Amino acid sequence: MSAANDGDQSTYWESTDNSFPRWARIDLGTATSVDQIVLKVPAPTVWQTRVQTLSVQGGADGSSYSTVVASADHRSRWSVV
């Protein structure tokens, strides 16, 4: 799971058996207002353009979650930073 948040765009996280759903729990440490989530995928030299189906859930106690962003398809896009 460390590759999910290692800051290296050439690495990425997958579930151990490549099964669905794949998920990652991110603990922000305290209740925090979030207005943007950025999912950086490997550069186009590594990954071809693809569609990822994503949803976002949020919660305050680490065990109960509600949908913040409903499941939807998102096309990969890249920008030079």
UniProtKB/TrEMBL annotation:
InterPro entries: APC_su10/DOC_dom, FA58C, Galactose-bd-like_sf. It comes from Streptosporangium brasiliense. Residues 1-81 form the F5/8 type C domain. This is F5/8 type C domain-containing protein. Residues 1-81 form the DOC domain.
